[in-house]
Amino acid sequence: MNFIIVTGMSGAGKSTTLKMLEDIGYFCVDNLPIPLIGKFAELSLTPNSELTKIAIGIDVRTGLKNISQALESLDSYGLKYEIMFLDSDDDVLVKRFKETRRAHPLVADGRVEDGIVKERELLKYLKSRATYIIDTSHLLTRELKEKVDDIFSKHQNFANLFITILSFGYKYGIPNDADLVFDVRFLPNPYYVDELKNKTGNDKDVRDFVLSFDDADIFLDKLEDMLLFLIPNYITEGKYQLVIAIGCTGGKHRSVTLANSIYERLKSNGQYGIRIEHRDIEKDGRR
């Protein structure tokens, strides 16, 4: 029996995740009242039950009173279950509510920000019990689907950490959400090579130029070594989102090349969710 409880912040993607689980064969029930969780589990455990993969969605709409007792009832049945918690940054949640013109379930006539604060407090217990915490702040729908498939279809090991490798240009400002920032302006600039200046680090000849310098390889080796040390410690401390920003002057050549390179190195490790983003690559052609 595979039994999953899907919960999390309103607007973080819970309903979308339930649909993804349904697509891979789970029997899904959304908005199940808390008192019915134990009864539902009991029915699913009856002999000859055809239900072998179940996902239930719970959130603040049904109220979370007695949620600890409900989970204890699952334990008493000997049912092994997992909790997936969907989270997102507050500003992203506010933006999503505004885009959909929905009211927050806890403050129908008030400010969305106030509802988010109340909701985080109510969900503290479930988040502390979560098997998986997925931050959807920067995830595309297909990226969320890949994570769900990796965990529940491919049964890959999952660390509650999602890494974004972000290239940027200093001339446009340091990313506000960056956790770690690395300056690669010490490397020769392809902008000053006529045949490269209008290309980007996604082009092979720019990449070959940047990586032709020994200092680039040394930097990547040292950065990879440091990140492989830091990441498990971040996970231990409960961090579940890490933005690693790599910057050059314009965010088109050196930073893109090195961001792509460290992305490939960490991706091959296979232990963490990871994505690549080039914030300033489409901006003007100046260095």
Describe this structure in words.
- With 287 residues, the chain is of the alpha/beta class.
- It folds into two domains: 2-152, P-loop containing nucleotide triphosphate hydrolases (Rossmann fold); 162-278, no CATH class.
- Helices cover 40% and strands 18% of the residues.
- It is built from ten helices and nine strands.
- The chain has a five-stranded parallel β-sheet with strand order 2-3-1-4-5.
- The longest helix has 23 residues, at 214-236.
- The chain is elongated and about 70 Å long.
- The model has no long low-confidence stretch (mean pLDDT 88).
Helix-strand blueprint:
Layout: E1 2-8, H1 14-23, E2 27-29, H2 36-44, E3 53-57, H3 67-76, E4 81-87, H4 90-100, H5 112-122, H6 124-129, E5 132-135, H7 141-152, E6 162-169, E7 180-183, H8 204-211, H9 214-236, E8 241-248, H10 254-269, E9 273-278
Parallel strand pairs: 1-3, 1-4, 2-3, 4-5, 6-8, 6-9, 7-8
Helix pairs in contact: 1-7, 2-3, 9-10
